[in-house]
Design brief:
The chain contains 1 helix and 7 strands. The strands form 2 sheets. Strands 4-7-6-5 form a 4-stranded antiparallel sheet, with no helix packed on it. β5 and β6 form a beta hairpin. With about 170 residues, it is an all-beta fold. The longest helix has 4 residues. It has one domain.
């Protein structure tokens, strides 16, 4: 899972205007830089070229990215890795609070386990070609040699936690 923000880092190209920030993955964030630059016309540069075998860590361990890349004013904390989604349903819950004052946040749960939280500057200034912000969901991923399909069921969006998680089991505190 990624969020995007304006690229405030030194740019290799003038069109590197956005920074994609990795906030949840099937691998520890400590194996990746926090952010990498991209634009809509270029291929996204994967955060790392070679990954180690999947690593699990205890709920007491918090993984953070090994370097900030282009990410600025944002901190992603990972409590668990995302579960393998292939061949099974995965229940995802997102708690999103977007504000223009660098106090935005996103919390992520998968199958009732808290995966991570990102705090800080999320999104981009309302100037130039990026005038609106939106939530986008799909099988976006690093380039792979296979196809994927995403199916949605029981999609709920609300300003009330009770509407999304009436039993408190999908996103426990």
């Amino acid at each position: 899972m990624t969020v995007e923000q304006d690229n405030l880092a030194a740019k290799e190209r003038p069109d590197d205007v956005l920074c994609r920030v990795l906030v949840a993955d099937q691998f520890p964030l400590s194996e990746s830089p926090a952010g990498w630059a991209h634009d809509d016309k270029a291929k996204v540069v994967p955060p790392i070229q070679h990954r180690k075998d999947r690593m699990d860590f205890s709920s007491e361990a918090i993984a953070v990215a090994r370097d900030p890349g282009c990410a600025r004013g944002i901190v992603a904390k990972q409590y668990h890795v995302l579960p393998d989604p292939f061949g099974r349903w995965t229940t995802m819950v997102y708690h999103v609070g977007l504000t223009p004052d660098n106090k935005a946040f996103v919390e992520i749960w998968a199958n009732g386990v808290k995966i991570g939280r990102v705090d800080g500057r999320i999104g981009y200034a309302k100037t130039g070609p990026r005038l609106t912000q939106y939530f986008k969901f799909g099988p976006y991923r690093d380039p792979e040699n296979f196809e994927t399909v995403t199916k949605l069921a029981n999609y709920v969006r609300s300003t009330s936690r009770r509407d999304v998680d009436p039993t408190g089991r999908l996103a426990p505190d």
